[in-house]
Amino acid sequence: MPKILVVDDEYRIRQIIRKYAEFEGYEVAEAVDGMQAIEVCRKNKYDLIIMDVMMPELDGFSACREIRKFCSSPIIMLSARGEEYDKIHGFELGSDDYVVKPFSPKELMMRVAAVIKRSGGGAEEQKRDVYTFKGLVIDFSARIVSVDGARVEMTPKEYELLFYMVRNKGLALTRESLISEVWGYDFFGDERTLDTHIKLLRKSLGAYSKCIVTLRGVGYRFEEVV
Predict the structure, then answer these.
(1) Is the pTM value of this prediction over 0.70?
(2) Which of the ends of the chain has fewer CB neighbours closer than 10 A, N or C?
(3) Phi and psi at residue 81, in whole multiples of 5°?
(4) CB–CB of 115/129 below 8 Å?
(5) E strand or H helix at 121, and its extent?
(6) More confidently predicted of 75 and 88
(7) Could you tell me how far CA 53 lies from the centroid of its own chain?
């Protein structure tokens, strides 16, 4: 049973999400603000976190930033603010989706299911799947990336972007296909979000950053550059 953490200072919102999530078969835990969310995430593992942006004590963006330092669980941000800047800011901090209030609980549950499926959460005893190129080791099953023996910490979107590119190594991947596969077909941001994540990913890969090749006017390709 996948475990979800719902973080919102409004009791009514938490109860609505709990009702629909439990109906869909999820186990639900709650936190009332960002500080409590960080605390419970240090003690427990969740398949997905639903995080409100505007909260007392510590806002959702700040909590997301802190949680990303030690946890790679997917995060869906909730906010009454739907400006593009806020959405991009949330994605750059490591969130996986952004839902604007007021929202449809049924739609939220569909997004929850889609994000968990993309992240591989809730799967039982997945077969170990590892890619190796010289000192670059990618364990798809465990979501672990190592460069020359050192483990590299990435945001969930960096992991998903790298995994998708490596799965399709040698192929020219258009910007549109990368955004659709990694962020979802209903992503409303712009292509700068992809460029930002490619830049972060290259930084994370260090000497293997050259494996991500830019295809001008098309997109990117992952290749085993010697």
Answers:
(1) no
(2) C
(3) -95, 120
(4) no
(5) none
(6) 75
(7) 16
3-state secondary structure of 221: strand
Q: What is the pLDDT of residue 187?
A: 56
User: Which of 39-53, 57-71, 78-92 is predicted with the least confidence, judged by mean pLDDT?
Assistant: 78-92
Query: Going along the chain, which residue ranges are E strands?
Result: 3-7, 27-31, 48-52, 75-79, 97-100, 130-133, 136-139, 144-147, 150-152, 173-174, 212-215, 219-222
Please provide the size of the chain in residues.
226
What whole-number distance in Å separates Cα of residue 137 and Cα of residue 135? 6
24-49 b/e (C-beta count within 10 Å ≥ 16 → b): eebebbbbbbbebbbeebeeeebbbb
CA atoms within 13 A on the CB side of 54: 9
d(CA 188, CA 181): 14
Q: Which residue has tokens 């994605």? A: 91
120: enclosing H helix or E strand: none
